[in-house]
């Protein structure tokens, strides 16, 4: 006879935290959100890869491109670049993140001296950048001849066919610096000379980078940024259980820091084979997370297969219709609680701490705090990140409101059949995801900082200054459906009603 669970499976909206004693030391600024990303022998060694905030971005076309990866690493988290693209394209995205030197920008707007104002305007419209390098061959690293900025020409006054050489600031009038100048020194040069852009050139006069006044300031503001030993941003990437023998080497070659097998259902032989292949070829050097699972059994299977972290969640994603189409899944809160127990038992038995990630279904910021309190080391978010400027999707205006597009990996639009692959020859034959809009929410940095301030405040209410302390001290209660109603504003007529569930 089939097995029946005694309790219904529950989701975050059915739980609340009960505050604990908070002392005068419990202030949000004193809270550390540092958390391990990969397994380690807790108490005996340092975790080889930690994050400064407990947030990773979903392995999705509508979420994790290189721009978002840079923005999130700057806040202290990690993006997993989507795998539902060609191996070359995914590796190129990883490479762009790894070669991005915080503060040093490889010029993406370049023209040769033969170009005209018409070319300048067309390029500016395409890239959105107003500083254009004029190099001998028109490439990002060609011999620097001059720079064109908006103040160098007047549209409708300067003729469209005027050659750039007639209005650019030529090299002999430019302030430049050698390629290895430190960011600190670059900033001094920028200030001393009252310039906005400093080109860095090599001994032959080839352009290497630009340093912009505005970037230096933002670099200074990001105390949490997550950098590797070479001061490049940390980045992850999704892989599948089909083409790993080609995809993994390409991603490793591009400099990826951590991989994750992207699958809607991870309790499978395919996942253990994939991890096995990585261990055989790279030992423990290449880090790989696995999932998704929703119970203790699934966790133990992946931990024993050698996963560096385990991801939890089936059917809870905002764009996910797996539960409706296939009838599988589990309430996200129950899944996290069950897996967290299994993780703690596994740690007691083996001394190995395998971090776990709650993936999908975070609607309100406090759901993050609940997931952490229930034992998750970090959370993966799709909808949340899709709303920001840096996500790779279009910003559109609908009924007077700005929205961003957001679609599931199991939707027809993404056609990520590997994610739902069960072996055999058939490819995605029915949809498990939808195509949608989410309200536009501005720059990632502002959104993440607001969210985490809320997380830290609640942690203080629970008397916790770290995530492990929260997990130890948290007191959680299931709430009745009537008290959920009581928890929102009620019995008043709202002056300014927006659907709060869509605003993070
Ligand atoms: P959410 O943050 O609620 O938008 O959920 C994002 C998660 O949803 C992803 O990390 C992934 O696990 C899952 N997903 C992605 N695509 C689909 C689908 O098409 N069903 N589901």
Shape: globular
Query: What portion of the residues fall into strands of 2 or more residues?
Result: 15-25%
List how many beta strands DSSP finds: 22
What small molecules are bound in this structure? ribavirin monophosphate
Number of helices: 15
Radius of gyration: 25 Å
pLDDT < 50 runs, ≥5 residues: none
Helix content: 25-40%
Distance between the termini: 42 Å
Mean pLDDT: 93
- What kind of sheet is the major sheet? 8 strands, parallel, barrel
Specify the structural class.
Answer: alpha/beta
Widest sheet: strand ordering: 4-5-13-14-15-16-17-18
Oligomer: single chain
Pfam families: IMPDH
Cofactor: K(+)
GO molecular function, one term: metal ion binding
Catalytic activity: IMP + NAD(+) + H2O = XMP + NADH + H(+)
Structure overview:
By secondary structure, the protein is an alpha/beta fold. The protein is 31% helix and 17% strand. It has 15 helices and 22 strands. It has helices spanning 66-75, 87-99, 117-127, 183-192, 213-221, 244-254, 269-282, 296-305, 322-326, 332-350, 365-373, 383-386, 444-461, 467-473, 481-487, and strands spanning 15-18, 35-36, 50-51, 55-57, 78-81, 110-111, 132-135, 144-148, 169-170, 177-178, 197-201, 207-212, 236-239, 258-261, 288-293, 309-312, 356-359, 378-381, 395-398, 401-407, 435-439, 475-478. Helix 1 (66-75) runs parallel beside helix 13 (444-461), helix 2 (87-99) runs parallel beside helix 6 and helix 8 (296-305) packs across helix 10 (332-350). It is globular, with a radius of gyration of 25 Å. The mean pLDDT is 93. Bound molecules: ribavirin monophosphate. Ribavirin monophosphate (RVP) binds at residues 58, 60, 313, 317-320, 322, 359-362, 380-384, 408-411, 432-433.
